[in-house]
Specification:
Helices cover 0% and strands 50% of the residues. It is globular, with a radius of gyration of 14 Å. The strands form two sheets. Strands 2, 4, 5, 6, 9, 10 and 11 form a seven-stranded mixed sheet that branches. A four-stranded antiparallel sheet has the order 1-3-8-7, with no helix packed on it. A hairpin with a 5-residue loop joins strand 7 and strand 8. By secondary structure, the protein is mostly beta strands. It is built from no helices and eleven strands.
């Protein structure tokens, strides 16, 4: 499984960005996908996840209302819509594809989001 993220950039506070992750390869065992972010000196944290069969999504409470995760009909492109961006959203954002627990996790190289004030 290969994951390629795009859509990052350098924006002002209050702006919006839409991140895209294109997945290729054998996706039949992937049962959910996710977005994580990691800022310098901080641990990687999840910002959204979605199941591939019924598209049940989850966004942490602190990000609800600003971040939305979605998956296309073909289940091979993952999106993260980010609105009202804040400087604390500055991080590298990674796409993940996950097989059932105990199996395997796949990760992309990430895309940088910088919110400057």
């Amino acid at each position: 499984v290969r994951l390629v993220e795009s859509g990052g950039g350098s924006v002002q506070p209050g702006s919006s960005l839409r991140l895209t992750c294109v997945a290729s390869g054998s996706l039949s065992r992937v049962n959910f996908m996710s977005w994580y972010r990691q800022a310098p000196g901080k641990e990687r944290s999840m910002v959204g996840s979605i199941t591939t069969d019924d598209r049940r999504s989850f966004v942490p409470g602190l990000l609800e209302g600003r971040f939305t995760i979605s998956l296309n009909d073909a289940r091979n492109t993952l999106f993260l819509q980010m609105n009202d961006l804040k400087p604390e959203d500055t991080a590298r954002y990674f796409c993940g594809a996950h097989e059932p627990a105990g199996s395997y996790d796949y990760w992309g190289q990430g895309t940088q989001v910088t919110v400057w004030s």
